[in-house]
Amino acid sequence: MFQFFKRVQTYVESELNAALDKAEDPVKMLDQFMRDMALDIREAETAVAKQLANEKILKKKYDDASSMAEKRQQQAVEAVEAGNEDLARRALEDKQNHVVQANSMKEAHERAASDSAVLREKLAEMKREYEQMQIKKDSLKARAESAKTRTKINRTMSSVGSDESRQGFERMEEKVMHLEAEAETSEDMRSGSRSLDDEFEDLKKSSSVDNELAALKKQLGKE
Description:
Layout: H1 2-21, H2 26-81, H3 85-159, H4 163-192, H5 196-219
Helix pairs in contact: 1-2, 2-3
Protein name: PspA/IM30 family protein
Pfam family, one: PspA_IM30
Organism: Planococcus glaciei
Protein backbone atom coordinates (compact mmCIF):
# COMPACT_ATOMS: atom_id res chain seq x y z
CA MET A 1 0.00 0.00 0.00
CA PHE A 2 2.66 2.48 1.07
CA GLN A 3 4.92 1.35 -1.75
CA PHE A 4 2.15 1.92 -4.24
CA PHE A 5 1.66 5.43 -2.90
CA LYS A 6 5.36 6.11 -3.36
CA ARG A 7 5.14 4.72 -6.88
CA VAL A 8 2.28 7.04 -7.77
CA GLN A 9 4.15 10.01 -6.34
CA THR A 10 7.29 9.10 -8.27
CA TYR A 11 5.25 8.85 -11.45
CA VAL A 12 3.86 12.31 -10.89
CA GLU A 13 7.33 13.71 -10.30
CA SER A 14 9.21 12.02 -13.15
CA GLU A 15 6.69 11.19 -15.86
CA LEU A 16 4.66 14.39 -16.16
CA ASN A 17 6.90 15.92 -18.82
CA ALA A 18 6.79 12.71 -20.86
CA ALA A 19 3.01 12.75 -20.63
CA LEU A 20 2.93 16.35 -21.83
CA ASP A 21 5.12 15.39 -24.79
CA LYS A 22 2.49 12.79 -25.72
CA ALA A 23 -0.14 15.57 -25.85
CA GLU A 24 -2.02 14.10 -22.89
CA ASP A 25 -4.12 16.53 -20.88
CA PRO A 26 -1.95 17.36 -17.84
CA VAL A 27 -4.88 18.76 -15.87
CA LYS A 28 -6.88 15.54 -16.16
CA MET A 29 -3.80 13.45 -15.40
CA LEU A 30 -2.97 15.45 -12.27
CA ASP A 31 -6.54 15.07 -11.02
CA GLN A 32 -6.29 11.30 -11.59
CA PHE A 33 -2.98 11.13 -9.72
CA MET A 34 -4.53 12.92 -6.75
CA ARG A 35 -7.53 10.56 -6.76
CA ASP A 36 -5.14 7.59 -6.71
CA MET A 37 -3.23 9.09 -3.79
CA ALA A 38 -6.43 9.80 -1.88
CA LEU A 39 -7.51 6.18 -2.39
CA ASP A 40 -4.14 4.95 -1.07
CA ILE A 41 -4.57 7.12 2.02
CA ARG A 42 -8.06 5.75 2.68
CA GLU A 43 -6.73 2.20 2.39
CA ALA A 44 -3.87 3.06 4.74
CA GLU A 45 -6.31 4.56 7.24
CA THR A 46 -8.30 1.32 7.17
CA ALA A 47 -5.15 -0.72 7.76
CA VAL A 48 -4.08 1.50 10.65
CA ALA A 49 -7.55 1.29 12.21
CA LYS A 50 -7.45 -2.52 12.06
CA GLN A 51 -3.97 -2.56 13.59
CA LEU A 52 -5.06 -0.28 16.43
CA ALA A 53 -8.08 -2.50 17.08
CA ASN A 54 -5.82 -5.57 17.19
CA GLU A 55 -3.48 -3.76 19.58
CA LYS A 56 -6.39 -2.97 21.92
CA ILE A 57 -7.60 -6.58 21.86
CA LEU A 58 -4.13 -7.87 22.77
CA LYS A 59 -3.86 -5.29 25.54
CA LYS A 60 -7.19 -6.40 26.99
CA LYS A 61 -6.14 -10.06 26.87
CA TYR A 62 -2.89 -9.21 28.63
CA ASP A 63 -4.72 -7.22 31.30
CA ASP A 64 -7.26 -10.02 31.81
CA ALA A 65 -4.56 -12.71 32.13
CA SER A 66 -2.53 -10.56 34.54
CA SER A 67 -5.62 -9.86 36.62
CA MET A 68 -6.48 -13.56 36.81
CA ALA A 69 -2.90 -14.43 37.80
CA GLU A 70 -3.08 -11.92 40.66
CA LYS A 71 -6.52 -13.23 41.66
CA ARG A 72 -5.30 -16.85 41.77
CA GLN A 73 -2.28 -15.79 43.82
CA GLN A 74 -4.54 -14.15 46.39
CA GLN A 75 -6.83 -17.18 46.42
CA ALA A 76 -3.85 -19.48 47.01
CA VAL A 77 -2.89 -17.35 50.01
CA GLU A 78 -6.41 -17.57 51.34
CA ALA A 79 -6.47 -21.36 50.86
CA VAL A 80 -3.15 -21.80 52.70
CA GLU A 81 -4.41 -19.65 55.55
CA ALA A 82 -7.53 -21.83 55.67
CA GLY A 83 -5.38 -24.97 55.76
CA ASN A 84 -6.59 -26.21 52.36
CA GLU A 85 -3.35 -27.02 50.52
CA ASP A 86 -5.09 -28.86 47.68
CA LEU A 87 -7.16 -25.79 46.83
CA ALA A 88 -4.08 -23.62 47.14
CA ARG A 89 -2.16 -25.93 44.79
CA ARG A 90 -4.89 -25.80 42.15
CA ALA A 91 -5.06 -21.99 42.45
CA LEU A 92 -1.30 -21.75 41.94
CA GLU A 93 -1.42 -24.08 38.93
CA ASP A 94 -4.10 -21.91 37.29
CA LYS A 95 -2.11 -18.84 38.21
CA GLN A 96 0.89 -20.20 36.32
CA ASN A 97 -1.27 -20.76 33.23
CA HIS A 98 -2.48 -17.16 33.37
CA VAL A 99 1.07 -15.92 33.88
CA VAL A 100 2.19 -17.77 30.74
CA GLN A 101 -0.76 -16.34 28.82
CA ALA A 102 -0.10 -12.84 30.18
CA ASN A 103 3.55 -13.00 29.14
CA SER A 104 2.55 -14.14 25.66
CA MET A 105 -0.09 -11.40 25.32
CA LYS A 106 2.36 -8.80 26.63
CA GLU A 107 4.91 -9.71 23.97
CA ALA A 108 2.24 -9.73 21.23
CA HIS A 109 0.84 -6.41 22.44
CA GLU A 110 4.27 -4.77 22.42
CA ARG A 111 4.87 -5.91 18.85
CA ALA A 112 1.41 -4.68 17.84
CA ALA A 113 1.98 -1.33 19.55
CA SER A 114 5.31 -0.95 17.74
CA ASP A 115 3.68 -1.80 14.40
CA SER A 116 0.85 0.66 15.11
CA ALA A 117 3.32 3.44 15.79
CA VAL A 118 5.13 2.76 12.51
CA LEU A 119 1.87 2.65 10.55
CA ARG A 120 0.61 5.85 12.13
CA GLU A 121 3.83 7.62 11.23
CA LYS A 122 3.66 6.30 7.67
CA LEU A 123 0.07 7.45 7.38
CA ALA A 124 0.99 10.91 8.67
CA GLU A 125 3.82 11.03 6.13
CA MET A 126 1.46 10.05 3.33
CA LYS A 127 -0.93 12.84 4.31
CA ARG A 128 1.88 15.39 4.43
CA GLU A 129 3.07 14.30 1.00
CA TYR A 130 -0.50 14.43 -0.31
CA GLU A 131 -0.88 18.02 0.91
CA GLN A 132 2.41 18.95 -0.74
CA MET A 133 1.34 17.30 -3.98
CA GLN A 134 -2.01 19.09 -3.78
CA ILE A 135 -0.21 22.43 -3.64
CA LYS A 136 2.07 21.40 -6.48
CA LYS A 137 -0.89 20.14 -8.49
CA ASP A 138 -2.67 23.49 -8.21
CA SER A 139 0.50 25.23 -9.39
CA LEU A 140 0.99 22.82 -12.29
CA LYS A 141 -2.65 23.14 -13.32
CA ALA A 142 -2.34 26.93 -13.37
CA ARG A 143 0.84 26.68 -15.44
CA ALA A 144 -0.80 24.22 -17.85
CA GLU A 145 -3.84 26.48 -18.34
CA SER A 146 -1.55 29.48 -18.90
CA ALA A 147 0.50 27.54 -21.43
CA LYS A 148 -2.62 26.45 -23.32
CA THR A 149 -3.91 30.03 -23.38
CA ARG A 150 -0.59 31.36 -24.68
CA THR A 151 -0.51 28.68 -27.35
CA LYS A 152 -4.05 29.54 -28.46
CA ILE A 153 -3.25 33.25 -28.63
CA ASN A 154 -0.02 32.64 -30.53
CA ARG A 155 -1.81 30.45 -33.06
CA THR A 156 -4.51 33.08 -33.51
CA MET A 157 -1.94 35.84 -33.96
CA SER A 158 0.09 33.78 -36.40
CA SER A 159 -2.99 33.35 -38.60
CA VAL A 160 -3.54 37.12 -38.81
CA GLY A 161 -1.94 38.45 -42.00
CA SER A 162 -1.18 34.99 -43.29
CA ASP A 163 -1.27 34.23 -47.00
CA GLU A 164 -4.65 32.56 -46.65
CA SER A 165 -6.16 35.54 -44.82
CA ARG A 166 -4.62 38.04 -47.24
CA GLN A 167 -5.84 36.10 -50.26
CA GLY A 168 -9.33 35.95 -48.77
CA PHE A 169 -9.29 39.71 -48.18
CA GLU A 170 -8.19 40.32 -51.79
CA ARG A 171 -10.98 38.09 -53.06
CA MET A 172 -13.53 40.12 -51.13
CA GLU A 173 -12.05 43.37 -52.47
CA GLU A 174 -12.30 42.09 -56.04
CA LYS A 175 -15.89 41.05 -55.43
CA VAL A 176 -16.79 44.53 -54.16
CA MET A 177 -15.13 46.13 -57.21
CA HIS A 178 -17.07 43.76 -59.45
CA LEU A 179 -20.35 44.72 -57.76
CA GLU A 180 -19.53 48.41 -58.20
CA ALA A 181 -18.78 47.85 -61.90
CA GLU A 182 -22.10 46.06 -62.31
CA ALA A 183 -23.91 48.99 -60.68
CA GLU A 184 -22.23 51.52 -63.04
CA THR A 185 -23.02 49.36 -66.05
CA SER A 186 -26.67 49.11 -65.06
CA GLU A 187 -26.87 52.92 -64.79
CA ASP A 188 -25.33 53.35 -68.25
CA MET A 189 -27.74 50.83 -69.67
CA ARG A 190 -30.65 52.63 -68.07
CA SER A 191 -29.64 55.98 -69.59
CA GLY A 192 -29.13 54.36 -73.00
CA SER A 193 -32.53 52.72 -73.03
CA ARG A 194 -34.65 55.96 -73.02
CA SER A 195 -37.71 55.88 -75.26
CA LEU A 196 -38.57 58.44 -78.01
CA ASP A 197 -41.32 59.79 -75.84
CA ASP A 198 -38.80 60.57 -73.13
CA GLU A 199 -36.60 62.44 -75.59
CA PHE A 200 -39.53 64.50 -76.98
CA GLU A 201 -40.62 65.33 -73.47
CA ASP A 202 -37.14 66.65 -72.75
CA LEU A 203 -37.26 68.62 -76.01
CA LYS A 204 -40.54 70.27 -74.98
CA LYS A 205 -39.07 71.20 -71.61
CA SER A 206 -36.02 72.68 -73.33
CA SER A 207 -38.17 74.74 -75.79
CA SER A 208 -40.32 76.09 -72.97
CA VAL A 209 -37.26 77.25 -71.09
CA ASP A 210 -35.79 78.86 -74.24
CA ASN A 211 -39.03 80.78 -74.94
CA GLU A 212 -39.19 82.02 -71.34
CA LEU A 213 -35.56 83.13 -71.51
CA ALA A 214 -36.15 85.03 -74.81
CA ALA A 215 -39.18 86.85 -73.29
CA LEU A 216 -37.15 87.85 -70.25
CA LYS A 217 -34.29 89.26 -72.40
CA LYS A 218 -36.78 91.23 -74.52
CA GLN A 219 -38.35 92.69 -71.41
CA LEU A 220 -35.01 93.81 -70.14
CA GLY A 221 -33.90 95.14 -73.53
CA LYS A 222 -31.08 92.69 -73.73
CA GLU A 223 -31.82 91.31 -77.16
